[in-house]
Structures are given as structure tokens and as C-alpha cells.
Amino acid sequence: MPADLILIVGCSGAGKTTYARRLADETGGIRFSIDEWMMALFWKDSPQPLEFAWTMERVRRCEAQILAMAQQLAARGIPAILDLGFTQKDHRDRFRQMAREAGLSAALHFVDVPVEERWRRVERRNAEKGNTYAMTVDRGIFDFMEGMWEPPEKDEWQANGGTRIGGD
């Protein structure tokens, strides 16, 4: 039985969305992608150039609603697959704490891909605009996210039945 919440973790271009889609199909879970929510709800209204504080406030609103929906799913025995980025440990810790407070289990699935390969994937996604494309990620955005990236340690991704996908 999978955890109530499955946190999909990896930096830009790791393949989080592709993995989350496959996992949702395999488990019968429901996938939540922060990129899709933000594009649908806020992208047309976003200030240009983007403002970090403006964006993060709206990300937090989406996350609160996603967690509320995940609680309803858990009550029905359906896992929530959370493709929310989780690039920083404090973000992952906050979600695991909210899950505990709500009586939910949470496991982390770490999609681990080397930075050079991730950049190649992002360039390809930008060019092809396929089914995982939400917005263009230029080298500046990629490098910004890379600077924020805090990969999970082994004890973090192994806790509660978590796993690591890729890597050596």
C-alpha cells in the first residue's frame, strides 16, 4: 500500500512529471502538478517580469488546496502524487509535518538525474513543447533553481517506504 502522500522530488529536468504520471497510473493515485495549477490559475495574471514573492504566495495557496484535496483522497484510500517541486528540504519537511498533523503518511520518491542530463532535457522540452511542457525554462531560471536545490539525503528518501529513481 503506497503512502497517502507521495512527494516527487528532483530538480528541473529530472523527469518528475513523467514519473508522477506513470506512478499515478500504476497506483491509481491522483497527480497534482504545481506547474499545471499555476499555469491554469495565475499565469495570465502574473506580473512581468515575474516577481518571486508574488509567485510564492500563489504557490502556497495552491499547496493548501492540494493538501485539502489529498486529505479527501486519503479518506477514500487513494494516494496523492505530489509533483510540487520540493527542491528544498524545509519545503519537504513542512509537507511531511502537515501530513503527520492530518494523520496522513508521506513518502518521498527522489528522481535523481545528473545536472548535464537535466539541462539537455529542459532544452528538448522547451523546443518540443510536448505533454510535460508548462512554460519555457531558460538557462537563467534553470541555474536559479539549481542554486536552490537541496538533494535529499539517503535517510530522508528512504523513510516511510520512499525510493530513489536513477542515479548510480
Short summary:
By secondary structure, this protein is of the alpha/beta class. The chain is 51% helix and 14% strand.
Describe what you observe in this structure.
This protein is α/β, with parallel strands linked by helices and 168 residues long. The chain has a single domain (5-166), classed as 3-Layer(aba) Sandwich (Rossmann fold), CATH 3.40.50. 51% of the residues lie in helices and 14% in strands. The chain is built from 7 helices and 5 strands; from the N terminus they run E-H-E-H-H-E-H-E-H-H-H-E. It has helices at residues 16-27, 34-41, 52-75, 89-101, 115-128, 139-148, 154-158; strands at residues 5-9, 30-33, 80-83, 106-112, 163-166. Strands 2-3-1-4-5 form a 5-stranded parallel β-sheet. The radius of gyration is 15 Å and the shape is globular.
Q: What is the C-alpha radius of gyration, as a whole number of Å? A: 15 Å
Indicate the proportion of strand residues.
5-15%
SSE class:
alpha/beta
Determine the fraction of residues in helical runs and give it as a percent range: 40-55%
CATH level 1 class label? Alpha Beta
Task: Give a short account of the largest sheet.
Answer: 5 strands, parallel
CATH homology group: P-loop containing nucleotide triphosphate hydrolases
Instruction: Based on Cα principal axes, name the global outline.
Output: globular
Distance separating the two termini: 27 Å
Query: Uncertain spans, ≥5 residues at pLDDT below 50?
Result: none
| Average pLDDT score | 92
CATH-level-2 architecture? 3-Layer(aba) Sandwich
Number of separate domains: 1
The DSSP helix count reads: 7
CATH-defined topology: Rossmann fold
Could you give the count of β-strands? 5
| String of helices and strands | EHEHHEHEHHHE
The order of strands across the largest sheet is 2-3-1-4-5
